[in-house]
Structure formats: structure tokens, C-alpha cells
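Reopening this ticket.

The earlier resolution said the output was attached, but the attachment link was broken on my side. Pasting everything inline this time so it's all in one place.
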Amino acid sequence: MTPVLTWSTNPVATSCTASGGWSGTKAASGTQTLSSISSSTNYTLTCTWGSGSATISWTAPTTNTDGSTLTNLASFRIYYGTSSGSLSQRSDVSDNTQRSATINSLSAGTWYFSVRAVNTGGMESANSNIASKAVTGATAAQSVAITITPAQTGRVTTNTAAYDVIRGSSGKWVLGRVVGTVPLNTPCRTYYLTGDYYGVQTGYVKLSRAARTNTLVAHCALR
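Inline output:
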């Protein structure tokens, strides 16, 4: 059996991780065809949502590092991250009169923030003091169980007639005509047709007339 898993999150998750019969980081929505499986397996997807935000406020500098008056202030840059020593993300504030900004869609955890002033020449100031905020989030997991049921087996116990199968008027496969016989105790497997008729291998069938299809069935008692 080859399972195809399709999933989505609403609201859109920040991150998702697969476990059980599959693994790895997954997108917030998608479709994946997995390799064939032969035993019952659970497929679990655990997603998290970053529901937090942080508002950062600052005081604009008025002088350059040499003490002269700052006259060419252009913008601000907010640097932030989940480690105070690695503020790897950035948000630009182009309005040089703005003194606060909000960073949204932060995942759960502690976030650290620092602000730099930027002049018209693109030169940045040193970092401001580092502020931090603990952000809360949500996590949920969903599992899909795929159950593999072993095929039943049976034997021909009484009626030894073998039949072909044909397409009925409804388009479904139905029991056809007698095309031969099979010995008692012939094994059969459960691709069910109608009533108690199941597939038998053609090698067991002694044909008395040409079969109209390659699928032959007989009356079997399942075990």
C-alpha cells in the first residue's frame, strides 16, 4: 500500500514536524506520497504557532560618536533573535521620526532586540542596549492511523465450478458464466466479487470453455 498524505493548518502554522511513519520538517500545508507500507503505521504531524509580538521603543541619538551634532539621521534598524549573542533577523524602520515598532509572528521562546540608527550615508550606529521578551505560542499534534489488514484466505469446499467475471450494466464487475472446474481445497484469496466468490489462480482451473476475462473465481469458504 502506498499512502498519500495531504494536510493543512488554519491558522497557518509557524513550523511542523513529522514523526511515526514519516519524519522531518514539513511545510504548514502540503501533499506527500510515501513509500509502500506493509504494516499498520501511525503518521503524526506536530505543528506550532507563533502567536506573539513585541513592541520595541527607543530614543533617537542626537550626536555622532565624535560628539558633533547628528544632522543626517535617515532610519533605524531593529536586530532581533532568540539569542542575545546572535541577533540574526532584521526589521527596517524607514521613518526617521518613528520611535517604536512592533515585530509580529514570533514563535514561542525568549526573543532579544536591539536598535541601531542609520545615517544618510548608510552608516550604522552601535547597538542600543539589548531588551528581551518571553513569547508564548501553541502546539498541537494530529495523527492518522493507516491499518493494514492481512488478506483472508480460504478453500473451495463444495461447489467446484469456476466462473469468469464481466462488467455489468452498472459498470461494476459481476459474476459471469461457468468456464470450468477447480479441485476441492483449491486455495482462494479475498478480492471479493459477490456472495462468497473469490479469486483463484488460473492454473487450478480446468477450463471447459474460454474465459472472457483473466479473473476467475470460485465459491470459497474463508478461514
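Reporter confirms the inline version is readable. The chain has no helices and 20 strands. The mean pLDDT is 88.
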